[in-house]
Amino acid sequence: MVTTAEQLSHRLAVEQSDRRLPSVSAAWVRDGEIRWQDAIGTVDARPDGSPATPDTQYRIGSITKTFVAVLVLRLAEEGRLALDDPLDRYLPGTATASVTLRSLLSHAGGIRAETDNPWWERTAGIDEAELRRQLIARDLAVGHFHYSNVGYGALGAVVAALRGRSWLDCVREEILAPLGMSRTTDRPAAPHATGLAVHPFADVVLGEPEHDAVAMAPAGQLWSTTGDLARYATFLQAGDDRVLPAAVLARMKRPHTWDDPPGQRWSRAYGLGLEILNADGRRQYGHGGSMPGFLAMLRFRADGDAILVLTNTTTGLSPTLVGDLLTVVDRSAPRSPTVWHARPDQADRLELTGEWFWGPARLTMHVRPDGWLELVPVGAGRGSRFRRTGADSWEGQDGYYLGETLRVIRPAGTRPYLDLASFRLTRTPYDPDADIPGGVDPAGWS
Fold first, then answer.
1. Which of 30, 130, 256, 432 could make a disulfide contact with 106, Cβ separation 3.0–4.6 Å?
2. Alpha-carbon distance 132 to 128, whole Å?
3. Which residues have CB under 8 Å from 332's CB, separation 6+?
4. How far is it, in rounded angstroms, from Cα 446 to Cα 439?
5. Are 71 and 218 within 8 A, CB to CB?
């Protein structure tokens, strides 16, 4: 019988050969544990070159942006900034005074995508003064998804301004050290791969330049390994109170802007520093990375599975590779359902379960295994999950009622009803004993 690891390695070998990748390193992580790692090829593409290993370091490009986003959210949690603060409060004197930090995190500030210097990824880095001069908004892009490397350069400068030290020092001290990511650096550290371009019509390669991007470094400077990224993916999935708790990380995973052609069902969105994919109705999170000579992908799901891929080529990685590896995992190593157990601690929520009506529309209320309430429409309607915030109050966690309050109203002499964002939910349609806004026709149903 072919094992899961053998199937994953076979798919990776096909990728390396068919797509002519000098070398490629990949890993599958489940619930924080590396379940499979493999590396194929040589770091310089020569047949007699040094073979790639799982400890080979590659440039991760724009995955760097997720580290910057984590730093910004840490500052927000400390009260040092608010996400809706204007950029000008921290980087005064730019031409983008009204652009907010939140819009920069989600690529919705309209900031130009690239610098006007020649191809910043392949030339000497610009300093912060030059970065500030180049913070220009594109009017057509304001409020829409418009990917901006320059915008993340600005966010790195905000972090440095508030911390009083470089954004890289903040990454090292506030993220890498607590998570034990000793093989993640700002410049290559041996053993590392060489950045290469593969000729489109011949089996020859060309070395790509590598340098310190200075003020643009927050957009794509970091190098890492699949082992280190496994630790990082686990943190992004579940949180770590030493860096950011899970409740704050959940804000990174909510769609803020969409990157889809008009009229199409959404397939790709962007949260606060994280890409969000709708893969056949199942959400995936993470980020891709691209720098001259390197491509990278970090992808994870809420169920605890993550795939990491690193390669040293400027172009060529198949867009289906990560999805194919996840399909192998789902088919050959399906997760066993969680064992059901009784939860006596949920007994105090029983009075809220069962049928409720929003006018004549029927819904059901359930207690989830995590103790939250879940309102489920029967047929069309609005549902949501609710987290308890008080004895008789709950807060919506998603959907239409995200952030809205659900209150249990207990009038004397009659049964309770629910107030949800000013709507009334009652045990019968338009219950005359409840306080229905506008009242109930005294003639009743007829």
1. 256
2. 6
3. 2, 3, 4, 7
4. 16
5. no
Q: How far apart are CA 200 and CA 197, in angstroms?
A: 9
> CA separation (Å) from 284 to 28, 75, 202, 269, 305?
14, 26, 36, 10, 10
Q: CA angle, 123 as apex, 41 and 90 as ends, to 5°?
A: 110
Q: Give the angle 266-272-278 at the CA atoms, nearest 5°.
A: 25
Task: Retrieve residue 309's tokens.
Answer: 């891929």
Tell me if residue 225 falls in helix, strand or coil: coil
Rounded to whole angstroms, what are the CA distances from 229 to 142, 183, 236, 294? Answer: 33, 9, 10, 16
Q: Which two tokens stand for residue 79?
A: 């009260």
- Return the higher-pLDDT residue of 128 and 153: 153
Residue 407 DSSP SS3 = strand
pTM comes to 0.89
- Structural contact between residues 385 and 374, judged by C-beta atoms closer than 8 angstroms: yes
| Tens digits of residue pLDDT in 249-301 | 999 999 888 887 666 667 889 999 999 998 877 899 999 999 999 999 999 99
* Interval 373-411: pLDDT, tens: 999 999 888 999 999 999 999 999 888 998 999 999 999
Element (H, E) at 227: helix 226-238
Sign of the dihedral defined by the CA atoms of residues 229, 234, 236, 240, in that order: negative
DSSP character at residue 192:
B
> What is the model's pLDDT at position 96?
78
At which residue do the structure tokens 């190593």 appear? Answer: 333
CA distances to 17, 60, 310, 317, 389 from 7, in Å: 16, 25, 18, 19, 47
How many H-runs (helices) and E-runs (strands) does the chain carry? 10, 20
Residue at 281: amino acid letter: G
Q: Is residue 324 within a helix (H) or strand (E), and if so which, with residue range?
A: helix 321-332
Q: Which two tokens mark 224?
A: 């890492």
